[in-house]
Write a structure and sequence with these properties.
The structure holds two protein chains of two kinds. Chain A has one domain. Chain A is mainly α. Chain B is of the alpha/beta class. Chain B has one domain: NADP-dependent oxidoreductase domain (TIM Barrel). Chain B contains twelve helices and ten strands. In chain B, helix 7 links the parallel strand 7 and strand 8. In chain B, helix 3 packs across helix 4, helix 3 packs parallel to helix 11 and helix 4 packs parallel to helix 5. The radius of gyration of chain B is 18 Å and the shape is globular. Chains A and B meet through helix 1 of A and loops of B. Bound molecules: NADP nicotinamide-adenine-dinucleotide phosphate.
Amino acid sequence: MSEWWTYRLGDFLMFSPRVYERLFVLYNQALWPAQLLALALGGAILFLLLRPGNTGMRLVMVLLGLAWVFVAWTFLWQRYAPVNLMIPYVAPLFVLQTLLLLGLGTLKSKLNLPAHWSVPRSLGSTLFVYALAVHPWVTAFPTSRGLWGAEVIGLTPDPLAIATLGIAAMANPASKAWLLMVVPALWCLISGLTLLALQAPLAWLPPLAVGMALVARLWPRR
Amino acid sequence: MPRHLHALSRRRLLKGLLGTAAAAALPPLDTLAETPRTLTREVPGNDESLPLVGLGSWITFNVGDDPALLESCTGVMAAFFAAGGRLIDSSPMYGSSQATIGHGLSQLGAVDRVYAADKIWTSSPDDGPAQVEASRSHWGVPRFDLLQVHNLVAWEANLDTLLAMKEAGEVRRVGITTSHGRRHENVERIMREAPLDFVQLTYNIVDREAEQRLLPLAREKGLGVIANRPFQQKRLIRRLEDKPLPEWAGKIDAGTWAQFILKFIISHPDVTCAIPATTQVEHVRENLAAAREPLPDADLRRHMADYVQSL
Ligand SMILES: NC(=O)c1ccc[n+]([C@@H]2O[C@H](COP(=O)([O-])OP(=O)(O)OC[C@H]3O[C@@H](n4cnc5c(N)ncnc54)[C@H](OP(=O)(O)O)[C@@H]3O)[C@@H](O)[C@H]2O)c1
């Protein structure tokens, strides 16, 4: 495409704020009461993160992996793709993330969490707790969506990506953890740009999560 | 070729709509006889004329499978046809908009009423025919009235596809589109060289570059002109809405800024129609009502543009 400089961010937005909001409302209504199960599983993951151990971490990776493929199919492919022509190119990355989580997180030399509290572990845990317990409220109430519009971990992409970033930001070994951060970070940037184009007040949240995860990841380990 | 304004018989347009459930929402025929008529303009080179205001579908009709929003778009289309509208513009680039239009046309029984204008938009021209067929099936029309090469994407090969379809009677008219004032030199060259029926470009009271070369060329070549982005995707209306309409806007019955802008666009003798998009029944009525007498003459048009410039 020539004349890139003549395009604004808004020129790439192909749906209205009203359509975006109702996407979550109708999705939640169709899935109810799956939100309760998703939140319970999220709570279980938090419990495992607070008591790091090999079996627990493997379970966390399996649950996260399943969530990524579930979101790819039920949210991205079935609901979001019809109104956003970019999504068919993004959904396969979610499947790739599932493979990475299952592969890197459960095979022989798997991921583990630091046993002691540290800056990376605090930042990573904060991101996870935010995704699980705060993000649904932040997306439901300051907007006109109401509770049906809440973005719930495991069912919608933003909190899932933020939670995954949180876990990967504190995990060891670094080489594997970095790999697990690529797709969630990419999604958070895409989501931030979409929200910015929609003029949503909280557009800065997903990119901020990427920033926090990078700080945690780059923080010197003892 | 001189371009004549015609009053379109709304009674004729509505005939096909009546008898359907949605037609119950349309005004009764006896009141239509008294309401002012929507002006049409001859499509140059063709023995047909089109209402001066059509309907765009970028963003506004991209609503997915949302039943409430599909019904709301059908309501917009019902009001559009009831007010005498015909040309609806879409593209495979507009997400689910084509399917939304198809839903509305089938609900309203308006397949025979619509002037179906769509686009070919692919950088792999071999995929063009399949894309057009998919678009046609979304709309649920037997064939398109107009197919345009969207934003000049792979225009030579895609235009060949469209011209072959026209030859085979699979589409009635062909054209090209651009917007935001982009690639006007290319557009001009294609208008000179290719056997087009229509050109679609951005033209409104502040984006007037087309007046210099493209509109006179369209007249010379006998092409229909569709004016897109009449409100700069609403930015223009937002910019003006807190400013007062001049008192002399009453001379042309422009009661709102939207009507002021539309009357400016469609009173250009080389413009066939403007295609504002909207999600609101009130707005579609307001927009169609702009396509009524009186329209400004050349002097008043200049005055209108100067006034907006001065704000
Ligand atoms: N390259 C191309 O081929 C190309 C490029 C651009 C556009 N197009 C075509 O041209 C069409 C029109 O352009 P556009 O959709 O970009 O922008 P537009 O028609 O200039 O503006 C659409 C916006 O104007 C608002 N609006 C409509 N009527 C109004 C009224 N009476 N009062 C106040 N606001 C009103 C609508 O909001 P509400 O919903 O609130 O009414 C909508 O948000 C497109 O839909 C598309 O079909 C083609």
